[in-house]
Amino acid sequence: PPDTALLGRSTWTFLHTTAAYYPLQAPPQAQSNMINLLSSLSLLYPCSWCATDFQKDMRRNPPDVTGREGLMKWLCERHNEVNTKLGKDKFDCGIQNLDKRWKDGPED
Ligand code: FAD
């Protein structure tokens, strides 16, 4: 079976970093690429119960792909849903805190 912790850390790193460098105001092509990425991820993610819950969460909360800040905040909230499910602390989804972690100064 997959190492869900390593897979999760790596996937969140990819997603938050990609969002941090997403256009401030995304053109239509970038928006549809991001919708495709997130939908495909929710279908293909190789931890089946994670994928099922992520699909449900995405249906309740459709992604904001209009630009960098909205996308980062949306992803942070999705990650917090998982944090809560796993009994972990919530992350501060303010843009300054997100930039500090994922754009300006990665710590790991
Ligand atoms: P992670 O949660 O992987 O976080 C990595 C780093 O991101 C943290 O050190 C912190 O600096 C930063 N961070 C934390 N929270 C946020 C946030 N809200 N916004 C921005 N940055 C943040 N695991 C399960 O056991 N069951 C599941 O159902 C499950 N579902 C998942 C669904 C998805 C879509 C993904 C990508 C992962 C899922 N995981 C699931 C894995 C889980 O979220 C963690 O990745 C894993 O438990 C390892 O946790 P960690 O403590 O190393 O840090």
UniProtKB/TrEMBL annotation:
Transmembrane segments: none annotated. It comes from the Eukaryota. It is found in: Mitochondrion intermembrane space. This is Sulfhydryl oxidase. The lineage of its organism: Eukaryota, Fungi, Dikarya, Basidiomycota, Agaricomycotina. The chain holds residues 126 to 233 of 237 of the full protein.
